[in-house]
Amino acid sequence: MSDRKYDFIFMDAGYTLFAASPSPPKFYHQVCLRHGCDTTIEQVIAAMRDVWVDRVIPEMNDPNADFSCSDEEDRAWWWNYDSEVFTRLGIPREKHAGIFDDIYVFFGNPSAWELYPDTVESLRQLKASDFSLAIVSNWNSSLKGIVDGLNLNGYFDFVIASAEAGAKKPSSRIFEIALQHAGKSPSRVVHIGDTFQTDILGARKAGIRGIMLDRRGGAHHEHEVIRSLLELRPLLVAD
Hints:
Strand content: 15-25%
Number of helices: 10
Structural class: alpha/beta
Helix content: 40-55%
Shape: globular
CATH architecture of the largest domain: 3-Layer(aba) Sandwich
CATH class of the largest domain: Alpha Beta
Mean pLDDT: 95
Order of helices and strands: EEEHHHHEHEHEHHEHEEHE
Radius of gyration: 18 Å
Distance between the termini: 6 Å
């Protein structure tokens, strides 16, 4: 006999349930070389990291940022990010669009992603404990096709991509839409994700308990953390 503390579990998608294969830096590097750009994987990693730190994290922490989302806005966001990466790599501007198109199309396909080893077993355990599951993720409308292509559809009651919801995390709006779909109050829902600013703070804004998944073993002091999805069920169920 078990006592469930929650009815519904919301989950992030990328780097929670599945990861890009090859990794984004490796694929960016491959595409750059294909387009005749002389760069190293180390330079790509550094440029992507620096643009994320300089541009993305401040945006996520900006209380006045616009977190509206659509397929067009998602593509524009990634274009702005990627073009800045390309600029820092010294890639001529006239090559940016071609490189970007190859990258953006690739990551919209299921073949670009692979499940983590713990994903399916953890989902089976949660379903066996009668939890309802949903995906709530910052993504364009390709997300449902990717989830289907990875054979995950049967585990989830619904999948919400920010581009279809009209808002992206950390806005509370996407979580509020997910709560409406679930038909549950925030107190009966928990959200799991790999990014503090979007997943944990975004969930908190909607009154939802947020648990961070950090597979890399970083240091955390102000929020709950698990290292594997297999740690989730014991945290939520008293056997």
